[in-house]
Amino acid sequence: DLLSNATTKDDHSNFVQLHGLPEGVKPEHIRKVFHGLNPSLIFVLPSFTNHIKGWDALYDTRDGNIVKRNASTFRVFVKFTNAPVANAAIERSGESIGFDKDCGACEKRGIVGASISISPVTKYIASFLQKHMAIHTRKGESISDTLTKAEEKLGTVTQMIWQMAMKKLNLKHQIIRKGGRGNTHSLDCSSYNHTIPTNKLQYQKLARIYNQLIDTHEKLELDSSLIFTHSFDPSCMEDSVHRITQSVSNWLLDEISIVGRLLNEFRQRMKL
Predict the structure, then answer these.
(1) For residue 158, which of 5, 16, 18, 46 is within the disulfide window of CB 3.0 to 4.6 Å?
(2) Residue 4 DSSP one-character state
(3) Cα separation of 162 and 172, whole Å?
(4) Is the dihedral of CA 213, 219, 224, 226 positive or negative?
(5) 17 strand-pairing partners
(6) pLDDT tens digits along 145-177
């Protein structure tokens, strides 16, 4: 029950998450579902193939369904003017969303829509997603195409932004892995905590992570060049790829600073 996972109604934000969207869905189709509620923003998150408990609905996308749907890990969010309007949007859960006849979502004649479900999003998560992870949809373009184009530019940043999300949103215990390890990256930020090492073995492990963080940030800077990082033009933040890359870059710098301070404190204690 996704509604029960959103804590209390007082913690509902002005965002909702959509589930069971048919393949080829466009932002225009979503706006029609919420006619009269005036959505101010529709965005999708970078891909992460593992199930997140409390975020993702469970439904079958295998052959045999009348309407082909995006996977449950296709995470689309809609922003409204305030929480009461978002709660009104949730009341439309179960209603039908349309799709273009030529999008390939359904080959059966006469089927022009599919029911979807809608769940609330907590205030902290909504704020984090909009600021750091949102890939804004484009009018006239399927959301899946928008996502694919963005991820071609993001490259390994897609995995790193989820490393950041797992750390910042404390998602480690909500991840249900599907067979393999899903999205992986050589940097595993779930393998350490922000605590001072208590022995030499812990120190050495944290020192390796510190060097990894530095190497990862340097590679990010090199790969992204001046197009994405360290740009002080506010308009650049309107570009989803730039904003996500900048968030990862800033987060890595913060982690380098924190881990470096922990290592230094351990060294000082050992001198005493």
Answers:
(1) 46
(2) G
(3) 11
(4) positive
(5) 77, 119
(6) 999 999 999 999 999 999 999 999 988 888 887
Asked if 247 and 164 touch (Cβ cutoff 8 Å), the reply is yes
Instruction: Identify the CA nearest to 182 among candidates 46, 29, 40, 30.
Output: 46
Q: Provide the edge-to-edge strand list for the sheet that holds 76-79.
A: 117-122, 12-19, 76-79, 41-44, 135-136
Give the three-state DSSP class for 78. strand
Six token digits for residue 159? 């995995």
CA 204 – CA 34 distance, rounded (Å):
54
Distance in angstroms between the alpha carbons of the first and the last residue of the chain: 54
Beta bridge partners of 122: 12
Q: Looking at the predicted structure, is the pLDDT value of residue 1 above 50?
A: no
In single-letter form, the type of residue at position 7 comes to T
DSSP 3-state assignment of 13?
strand
Paired tokens of 64: 């045999």
Residue 29 three-state SS:
helix
What pLDDT is stored for residue 60 in this prediction? 61
Question: Rounded distance, CA 26 to CA 115, Å?
Answer: 15
Task: Specify the pLDDT at position 266.
Answer: 95
Select from 219, 13, 45 the least CA-distant residue to 126.
13
Note the pTM of the prediction, 2 decimals: 0.87
Please return the burial class of 36, using the count of CB atoms within 10 Å of its CB with bins 0-12, 13-18 and 19+.
exposed
Q: Give the pLDDT score at 57.
A: 86
Taking the CA atoms of residue 28, residue 35, residue 6 and residue 255 in that order, the dihedral angle to the nearest 10 degrees is 40
